[in-house]
Amino acid sequence: MGGIGKTAFAQLVYNDGAVMAHFDKKIWICILKVCDLRNVAKAIIMGLAEPDRASASALNHDSFTLQGLLGKICKDIERKKVFLF
């Protein structure tokens, strides 16, 4: 369903100051038609990480299960308002 402006609309919402004032963190994740849920979870964790946080770089290891990554996301967003697009 390409060409009807979904991404353009999403970008307008994502960058709107009035909308974003309600969230603690905003994250934009690009997902391909064929996606690996572990890579999506890793991208979300990277988006939640502070720029100087070394723990985010530890996600390069393949030993993390999807369940473990989802648990980390739940822990990282606890009590936060997150806008994920």
Report on the structure:
- The protein contains four helices and two strands; from the N terminus they run ααβααβ.
- It is 45% helix and 7% strand.
- It is mostly helical and 85 residues long.
- A two-stranded parallel ribbon has the order 1-2.
- The mean pLDDT is 83.
Write the layout of secondary structure elements.
Layout: H1 6-15, H2 17-20, E1 25-27, H3 37-48, H4 66-77, E2 82-84
Parallel strand pairs: 1-2
Key features?
mainly alpha, single chain, 2 strands, 4 helices, two-stranded parallel sheet, 85 residues, flat
Gist of the model:
This protein has 85 residues and is mainly alpha-helical. It contains four helices and two strands; from the N terminus they run ααβααβ.
Helical content stands at: 40-55%
Q: Report low-confidence residues grouped into runs of 5 or more.
A: none
Report the biggest beta sheet as strand number plus sense, adding barrel if it closes: 2 strands, parallel
Please tell me what the overall shape is. flat
Would you tell me the overall average pLDDT?
Answer: 83
Taking strands numbered 1, 2, ... along the chain, how are they ordered across the largest sheet?
A: 1-2
User: Termini, distance in Å?
Assistant: 18 Å
